[in-house]
Structures are given as C-alpha cells and as structure tokens.
Amino acid sequence: MSKVRTTVTLDDEVLKWVKVRAARLGVADSRVIEDSLRRDLGLALLERLWSRDQMPEEQATRLAVEAQHATRPRRRR
Description:
68% helix, 77 residues, mainly alpha, 0% strand, elongated
C-alpha cells in the first residue's frame, strides 16, 4: 500500500494523546492516526468482509440487481 504525505490540523489535546498512545505502543504518531481513521471509517471490517467473499461475480451481480428491484418504488398504473 502506497503512502501519501499530508498536513492535518489537530487539537493540541488530541495530538498529545496521539503521542502518548504512539509511545505506549512503540509506533509512529502517523500509525496511531491512520489506525484510528481506518477503525472509525470501518475500513478494517470492509477489508475482512471482502477478503472472505467467495461469491462468483455473476451471482453477486444477480443479487445486486434483485436488491435494486426489491427496493424500487412500484409504479402506479
């Protein structure tokens, strides 16, 4: 996975706790921030779900189309 450098503005208190957590874990501040964002955005869960996906593409497409049809409002005639 490639990394991109960026600038983020954080509250002083938040940054203090990022540094404390990083020191306790023995990792970089950026690792604590990235892990927190991944957890908050639910990326870890999505990656786990996608890695277990064994459904063939054709079946997944069929299910997606069925779900779309099931949730569309019915036309009045």
